[in-house]
Amino acid sequence: MPVFFPRPSAIVATMAAMAVCAVMPSVACADNPFNTIDSAPLSELWINPGFYSFHFDRDKGLNNNNYGLGAEYRFSTVMSATAGRFYNSDRRYSNYAGMYWQPVALGPLRLGVVAGAFDGYPRAHNGGWFPAVIPTISYEYQRVGANIAVIPGYKDRLYGAISVQLKFRMSN
What are 81-96's pLDDT values in tens digits? Predict the structure, then answer.
């Protein structure tokens, strides 16, 4: 049975429509299920064991088990800093650093983007650092959470995927 994965452009278009609903409820949506999150100070440290990626190009033999070690420090209700290291889709080690901005809520889900930089992909800047902005959805419950990222592909240098990252809260 074939496995269906939506095209990255369709996912991005859906997330853009959700954002329009959040910022223009009277025009775009009746009974808007989206809420803007008020920014307030917070101090939470989360750690993660890397990612699991569902690649759109299933036939390329890419590594889905992107294990590693990362940290996320949520310093406000809408922003957090993140950094870590993982074994990437090309079976090389990558480092990352960035900032999550998630100003929209859909029930218990936080919607937004993570903007940052990555390295370690041999066909992208010869393995050097490059910037990225990635749509994200997060869910957190007490001491356990998950980040879901929609990673766009870029030519034959970076491979698109839906990536799931489990995380565990170490402090409040």
Answer: 999 999 999 999 999 9
Q: Tally Cβ neighbours within 10 Å of residue 91.
A: 11
CB 69 within 8 A of CB 85: yes
> What does each C-alpha distance from 162 to 36, 45, 76, 142 come to in angstroms?
24, 24, 26, 24
Q: 6: which 2 tokens?
A: 């939506």
Element (H, E) at 143: none
Contact 33, 107 (CB under 8 A): yes
**How many whole angstroms separate alpha carbon 154 and alpha carbon 7?**
13
The one-letter amino acid at 117:
A
- Give 10-66 pLDDT, tens digit per residue: 555 555 555 555 555 444 455 889 999 999 999 999 999 999 999 998 889 999 999
Residue type, 149: A
H or E element at residue 16:
helix 8-23
Q: What is the pLDDT of residue 87?
A: 97
Q: What DSSP string runs through 17-65?
A: HHHHHHH-HHHH-SS--EEEPPP-EEEEEEEEEEEEEEES-GGG----E
Task: Give the C-alpha separation, 169 to 116, whole Å.
Answer: 22
